[in-house]
Amino acid sequence: MKLDFSPFLHQTQLERHENSLLRQENDKLRAENMSIRDAMRNPICSNCGGSAIMGEISIEEQHLRIENSRLKDELDRVCALAGKFLGRPISSLANSIGPPLPSSSLELGVGSNGYGVLSTVATTLPLGPDFGIGISSALPVMPPARTTAGFDRSIERSMFLELALAAMDELVKMAQTDEPLWVRSLEGGREMLNHEEYVRTFTPCIGLRPNGFVTEATRETGMVIVNSLVLVETLMDSNRWAEMFPYLIARSSTTDVISSGMGGTRNGSLQLMHAELQVLSPLVPVREVNFLRFCKQHAEGVWAVVDVSIDSIRETSVAPTFVNCRRLPSGCVVQDMPNGYSKVTWVEHAEYDESEVHQVYRPLLSSGMGFGAQRWIANLQRQCECLAILMSSAVPTRDHAAITAGGRRSMLKLAQRMTDNFCAGVCASTVHKWNKLHAENVDEDVRVMTRKSVDDPGEPPGVVLSAATSVWLPVSPQRLFNFLRDERLRSEWDILSNGGPMQEMAHIAKGQDHGNCVSLLRAGALNANQSSMLILQETCIDAAGSLVVYAPVDIPAMHVVMNGGDSAYVALLPSGFAIVPDGPGSRGSGEATSNGDGPLRVSGSLLTVAFQILVNSLPTAKLTVESVETVNNLISCTVQKIKAALQCES
Asked: What is the pTM of this model?
């Protein structure tokens, strides 16, 4: 009988196979065990990749590792933003391993950005300190400890960069695009924004318009006697910017420089600014704005500078408690011309609280003539023409030959100080610390303010009272300006003229228009017991409006100034007039006009009258009711005399 061992052989084979599998599994477990032991000897943090000692990690070190992870996330945000400049991702740069370069930078390829006729130029955009995080932060090492405030600041700066890019893109497109985005107004022919087309074309940069706010938007193009580099440098310097637009800007400052530019130029410059913008009338509140200003070169000789409000991003102590104006992407595109001029296209776009504006000025502001592009271009052209004349070696034929070059400079510097102080007194900006008075014996539309003048050699010491009002007159702005600046007609309205005509003793031209000048006037004495008096007067006019500012001055002091002496010690208090058209389409002739949709209206001018008077030579003195009444009567009498001389109805 043959025994069958095949079942036992099969079972033995199965057992061997199972033993082999168990042996392999045992080897795997042994290898895993060895790996775990090695890992326990050298633990690694899963968040940051650095080494860790189990059970011995301090709270501070844990915070640093968490911060390191957050910074890497923030680096990704910055790289994504910078990638918008490059037009390609830059993650490969961020992930590269190696020692940090002495001056890390990214190539910035600036495209047309909607300016189709412009070529592309390459520059460099520095990161690092400008944007809060450098390229070296991407390396797999733990960065230095940073506070939460510093981290929040880097996030804020990256948000500013993103806002600046969007604002620049919008500005350039608005400067380039014509109809249907921009249409010509029926009154005056100015370019006005088609708001429906704007909403279809652009996504709001700073959120929706606040309730109760209205919109103004204008565009203007003009030729200016300045090259693009000089103009850009002026716009990016807050002090030079205010000097270029002295009647528009009451005060300005740079609050933070995020990027100073690249390659020694202003290309890529990004900064935070604060400004007080004004229309010269007590009936129009000063616009206080906090905004980003971003400068970018688009091609050789072609630059753009854009402003945009930041109130939706940052609530800081420098922001006004109540924002009465928001600056949407606004600014200019500047292109060099072969003749040394520049072609400047200016865009102004803002939202503001109209309820704070007096009814008589609302048409002016809603049309953009108060703060709009036309006024910026007109002011820029006049001021650049003035600078060109003053820098010229040739003396204009209308100038007084006896005044030396040093005397001209001193006299112009004194006139500029006089006019700046006049504007500060009309609008109650923060240039001076004014206290508003609410007196019962003052007319409704007259604003009276006081301040103390102490230790200022350019002003007489004591209590200074300022009074200003604005009235409508059915007279053209040009006719009103010519009347007020004519020294031969001054006795018809000025009580300082001693009842007779004045004589022009000196004349300095500031523009091609005869109305742009500084003059020294002398009033004749009525009798032998009276001494003659000198009056310094500055007049200026452009397409947006005109000014006549004057102040009595000391005769010996003016002799020093005309010989080139220091004008800072000449004490004066200014008075004068500001004139603007009363609204769009104003021919100012007293004619009845209509836009076809509403009733006839008589067009004319808006005249602001303002006086600053020393009511007491002691700074600690109390203001009397009689002083307030005297100044109120002076304004009322002056307005009535002007109306009578121009044969205006009451």
From this structure: 0.75
